[in-house]
Design a protein that fits this description.
two-stranded antiparallel ribbon, 18 helices, 7 strands, Znf_C17orf113, C17orf113 probable zinc finger domain-containing protein, RNaseH-like_sf
Length: 395
């Protein structure tokens, strides 16, 4: 018996076919059983809920209108719940819900962050190039060259936004961001003053420049606000440009403006129709202080004093101006003057313009330059006169 038990092998277990399994499931379903919803299912399936219509998926019913777990499933079996959980529709809706609750943790968001980081890095380089052009007064056409140079250095500059038109757009954005920063400073200022002066641009068109001045935390700040070409430099036009320049930086400026700094031209300081008087009427502040630029007043006072006591002043001013144009309008004369400085082992100091702007410092600089380079100038004048004499046959 023992020997028999030792050698006994149980018969292999009979494996049911898929057809037999399906048949058994059908027979099981035919049996009359009472099933009910189990509350503990909600611990395992947090998206599950029980309604009067049956089991529903709280996530799917937010994104879909049809489906057994949207309208209500009464097949209270755990297998039905698992089957719904594995469905593609449920998985998609779960991703939607996660993205809605925490957008930063989705795959799309992470990919977008990486993409944005790369794009922002490229844009930072491009904005720096444009900012450098603006600081140095270079044309936008140089922007493409700077981008090509960055690329040659191995920097990731990208292939987009590398035209002069895009450079102009970047410059506009930089200016607007800087204006916004200044607006925040002016929002806390109680009093402001404007400074304005006229000039001509490279095309000899009348241009008005406006600065706005205020005090913040005990520090005086002067901010550039506007430069604008004007059709004509009359009081009405200039006053409108000044107001526009102030409005660029200061909201409700009528209650903060206390002074205007200008030159002494009648179009600016005329007591009846001058630009300052028009702005007084515009802001309804008749006591608004009009300040005559001290630099202009000093230059005017100096000229009046010198012309009365030193008749030679006009001749000196004319001489300095003629020397300036003698070298400014001739490349040959400038080159020969530089050779004279080199011969004398002196630093090259070219004559500067006098009388172009109403500042006494310009006259002083012109005189200092003439005195510093007097020997070189005299040497060059001797050479010029010698050649002229030989040319005309004068011994």
């Amino acid at each position: 018996m023992e020997r028999f038990l030792r050698n006994y092998q149980p018969p292999p277990k009979k494996t049911k076919t898929e057809r037999e399994k399906a048949q058994k499931r059908q027979e099981y379903e035919k049996e009359s059983r009472h099933r009910d919803y189990l509350k503990q299912w909600e611990n395992e399936f947090t998206w599950l809920a029980k309604t009067d219509h049956g089991m529903v998926c709280k996530v799917c019913e937010s994104y879909e209108e049809v489906g057994s777990f949207v309208t209500g499933c009464k097949n209270y079996k755990k297998d039905s719940i698992k089957c719904h959980e594995k469905s593609d529709g449920h998985k998609t809706n779960m991703r939607r819900e996660q993205a809605r609750k925490d957008p930063g943790q989705t795959e799309a968001s992470r990919a977008l962050k990486m993409l944005n980081k790369q794009v922002l890095s490229r844009l930072a380089l491009q904005f720096r190039n444009v900012h450098g052009l603006c600081k140095k007064g270079r044309p936008y056409t140089d922007y493409t060259l700077l981008c090509d140079l960055d690329e040659a250095k191995g920097m990731d500059i990208g292939k987009q936004y590398r035209t002069d038109k895009k450079a102009a757009e970047f410059a506009t954005s930089i200016a607007e961001a800087e204006r916004e920063r200044m607006r925040k400073d002016f929002s806390t200022a109680k009093f402001i003053a404007a400074i304005s002066d006229g000039t001509t641009d490279s095309s000899f068109q009348e241009t008005e420049i406006v600065y706005v001045r205020h005090c913040q935390a005990g520090k005086i700040k002067v901010n550039f606000s506007l430069v604008k070409n004007t059709m004509k430099a009359d009081a009405q036009t200039i006053s409108e440009v000044i107001v526009e320049g102030i409005e660029n930086l200061v909201t409700n400026f009528e209650n903060k403006l206390v002074a205007l700094g200008t030159d002494g031209a009648s179009v600016m300081t005329g007591h009846k129709t001058g630009a300052v008087q028009r702005i007084r009427e515009r802001v309804a502040r008749p006591w608004l202080v009009g300040v005559h630029c001290s630099g202009h007043k000093l230059e005017l006072a100096y000229k009046d004093m010198v012309k009365q006591k030193i008749p030679l002043y006009d001749k000196l001013e004319s001489l300095l101006l003629n020397i300036y144009y003698f070298y400014r309008n001739s490349n040959l004369n400038r080159a020969l003057l530089k050779e004279s400085f080199a011969t004398l082992n002196q630093k090259v100091i070219l004559p500067t313009r006098v009388g172009g702007t109403r500042w006494i410092g310009h006259l002083k600089l012109a005189i200092d330059n003439i005195l510093s380079g007097y020997e070189a100038l005299l040497q060059h004048f001797d050479q010029v006169s010698y050649h002229l004499c030989n040319k005309e046959g004068v011994g």
